[in-house]
Design a protein that fits this description.
Length: 174
C-alpha cells in the first residue's frame, strides 16, 4: 500500500486515507483496461451521493438485490450508515468504482451491508482494498460481520474471513 497522498477528492467532503496503484493488467481483445494503470484512492465518505452509490450497485451487479429503484430507501441507507468507505480512481472526475457501506458502534461490532465494485474494475484488488480500509478504520477491537451472496463466498474466504456456522437472522420481508 502506498503512503498517504495529501490531495483532496474534488468537492467531496472526503477524508483521504490511502492510495493504491492498480498494477494488474486486464486485457480484453488486446486493449488494456481503462483503469489498468490508475491509482485507486480509498476514503471514508460520510456524504456519499445517492446517485453515485446507486450507479456502483447497478454496475457491480449487487443492484439486482438492493432497492435501486427506491431512492428514498437508498438515501436512508446512506444517511443512517456510519462507515462508508469508497474507492475512487485518482484521475479527473475521481470516478467512484467501489463502495463498502457499514453500520458500526466503532467499539465492538460492524455489519458490512454492501461491498460492491463496478464490473469494469473487478479482480483488481479493489474489493480487498475496501475491506482492508474498513478494518483499518474500525481497529482491532471491532469484529466485521456480513452475509455473503453465494458468488462472493470465495472472495471472503480468500480475504481470510472465517465462516460462522452459528449465525442467525430474521430476514427482511422486502
Ligand atoms: C465480490 C467483489 C466485492 C470482489 O471485489 P473485487 O475487487 O472484484 O475483488 P479483488 O480483486 O479485491 O479480489 C481479491 C482476491 O479475491 C479473489 N476473488 C475475487 N472475487 C472472487 C469471487 N467471486 N470468488 C472467489 N475469489 C474471488 C480474487 O481473485 C483475488 O484473489 P488473489 O488475492 O489471489 O489475487 C466484487 O466482485 C463485486 O462487487 N461483486 C458483485 C457484488 C457482490 O457480490 N458483492 C458482495 C456482496 S456480499
Amino acid at each position: 500500500m502506498a503512503g498517504k497522498p495529501s490531495v483532496k477528492l474534488g468537492s467531496t467532503p472526503a477524508c483521504l486515507l490511502s492510495g493504491v496503484e492498480v498494477r494488474l493488467s486486464r486485457v480484453s481483445d488486446g486493449v488494456p483496461s481503462m483503469i489498468e494503470s490508475s491509482r485507486v484512492l480509498y476514503a471514508r465518505e460520510a456524504g456519499l451521493d445517492v446517485a453515485e452509490f446507486r450507479r456502483v450497485l447497478v454496475e457491480s451487479g449487487l443492484g439486482a438485490i438492493r432497492p435501486v429503484d427506491d431512492e428514498a430507501r437508498l438515501r436512508m441507507m446512506l444517511s443512517a450508515a456510519n462507515l462508508i468507505v469508497t474507492a475512487r480512481l485518482d484521475e479527473p472526475g475521481n470516478s467512484l468504482v467501489g463502495v463498502a457501506r457499514c453500520v458500526t458502534d466503532f467499539s465492538w461490532c460492524c455489519y458490512l451491508s454492501e461491498l460492491a465494485v463496478c464490473a469494469s474494475a473487478q479482480n483488481l484488488g479493489i474489493g480487498k482494498g475496501l475491506l482492508d480500509e474498513a478494518r483499518r478504520q474500525l481497529g482491532p477491537s471491532v469484529s466485521l460481520i456480513l452475509a455473503s451472496v453465494p458468488d462472493a463466498v470465495g472472495f471472503y474466504e480468500r480475504a481470510g474471513m472465517a465462516k460462522l456456522p452459528d449465525a442467525f437472522w430474521y430476514k427482511r420481508e422486502y
